[in-house]
Amino acid sequence: MLRRFRWFAYGLIAVALLAWGGYWLGEGGMQRAGVSVPGAVSVGGPFSLTDTTGKPVTDATYRGRWMLVYFGYTFCPDVCPTELQTVSAALDKLGPDANKIVPLFITIDPERDTVATLADYVKLFDDRLIGLTGTDAQIAAAARDYRVYYAKATPKDSTNYLMDHSSFLYLMGPDGQFRALFRPGTTAAELADALRTRLQAS
């Protein structure tokens, strides 16, 4: 199963790199921050998870608002905190328009990321950030639809494991359809500008 996730992720990265290359050949102003994925590539889909209040939610729960989705885990030592700080800063830059966006942090480590753990974690970054967890099967299904790669990795001479995972931000429209992919390392200013452009065009 994890091997399948790995190939999904490799395929998505290849598509993203091709799209990114298109920008440097002269295409797409907003692609400086966002990487467009060809329509033939399916990204996202229905999910059934649990939020930090213990309430069951689905993708339809957030219909009518833009979803900014990130897959990570609370024990992540570097990239996850960095990306969540970027999301928070970008929302601040948007001002009132940020109310049109719901930022979702979906764990890929449900074994450790309980409802309570996630609730405490997301508060460290932004009160608007919603943490979602679920069963192994629910997380696997969501990750598969978003083409997210993840796998346990235990460092040598350690009893604690880390999670190796891809690190993209996914923007889903108010209709639940995939709209944009943001690469790791996108700055808060770049993300805010790209989101603002999307909101104004809708």
In terms of topology, how is this protein built?
Blueprint: H1 2-24, E1 34-35, E2 48-51, E3 56-58, E4 66-72, H2 79-94, E5 101-107, H3 115-122, E6 130-133, H4 136-145, E7 150-153, E8 162-165, E9 169-172, E10 178-182, H5 188-201
Parallel strand pairs: 4-5, 5-6
Antiparallel strand pairs: 1-10, 2-3, 2-6, 4-9, 7-8, 9-10
Helix pairs in contact: 2-5
Q: What is the 3D form?
A: globular
The biggest beta sheet, please?
Answer: 8 strands, mixed
CATH superfamily: Glutaredoxin
- How many E strands? 10
What are its keywords?
single chain, 202 residues, alpha+beta, Glutaredoxin, eight-stranded mixed β-sheet, two-stranded antiparallel sheet, 5 helices, 10 strands, globular, disordered N terminus
Description:
The protein has 202 residues and is an alpha+beta fold. The protein has one domain (2-201): Glutaredoxin, CATH 3.40.30. Helices cover 35% and strands 22% of the residues. It has helices spanning 2-24, 79-94, 115-122, 136-145, 188-201, and strands at residues 34-35, 48-51, 56-58, 66-72, 101-107, 130-133, 150-153, 162-165, 169-172, 178-182. Strand 9 and strand 10 (178-182) form a beta hairpin. Helix 2 (79-94) crosses helix 5 (188-201). It is globular and about 50 Å long. The relative contact order is 0.22.
